[in-house]
Design goal:
mainly alpha, Hypothetical protein af1432, binds fe (ii) ion
Length: 195
């Protein structure tokens, strides 16, 4: 029997997490998070990783997406604020380290850290980090043309799927002449050497 590589001590009330998420997100975004959570859990099961951890990381990954952090009296750092200035599309992922302990106090740090890399990826991710990064891209309502290709690839190799997503995102940003956060380049470079 395959071993789960994360301990099974998760003590989180999933219904309470969902209720809080509903209060933070539009219906559209909430439904997206449910789909990402399910895809995360399916991928985790396939790779004998704790699917509850993956489901929860998928659930919270966009928790900060619709928050106006300028209206919140929380301990955001200069790093967080500079990301909102320079890379507004991805900043919501990097404030989860502040948001999650406030809104989801029973969610373990390992879950938060897994969700924090869902926009850019990075070099040398854990399997849980890879899974949330991939699940966000392959959830069924994504309309990108290569969704099915990446979906199939994800069940063969997490590393190959991560690389293809990083490649796609870099291409998109370059074609759009948008700025590129360095962690995405790190992700692309690292996984280009793994596949
Ligand atoms: Fe998402």
């Amino acid at each position: 029997m395959p071993q789960k590589n994360i301990d099974d001590s998760l003590k989180v009330n999933f219904d309470r997490v969902k209720t809080t998420l509903k209060s933070l997100l539009s219906d559209y975004r909430y439904e997206h998070t449910l789909r990402v959570a399910k895809e995360s859990a399916f991928l985790a099961s396939h790779y004998s990783i704790n699917s509850d951890y993956a489901f929860l990381a998928g659930l919270i990954h966009d928790a900060a997406k619709e928050l106006d952090i300028s209206q919140l009296d929380l301990n955001f750092t200069d790093f967080h604020l500079s990301l909102y200035q320079s890379f507004p599309a991805i900043a919501h992922a990097f404030v989860l380290d502040v948001i999650v302990p406030v809104y989801f106090s029973d969610v373990p740090t390992i879950i938060t850290e897994a969700a924090m890399w869902h926009t850019t990826g990075k070099a040398d991710m854990s399997d849980l980090e890879k899974i949330v990064f991939i699940a966000d891209f392959i959830e069924p309502n994504r309309t990108v043309e290569n969704r099915q290709f990446i979906y199939d690839l994800a069940y063969q190799s997490l590393d190959k799927a991560v690389f293809e997503i990083a490649f796609f995102k870099l291409n998109f940003l370059l074609k759009s002449r948008k700025s590129i956060y360095s962690k995405l380049v790190d992700c692309y470079n690292f996984y280009s050497n793994q596949v």
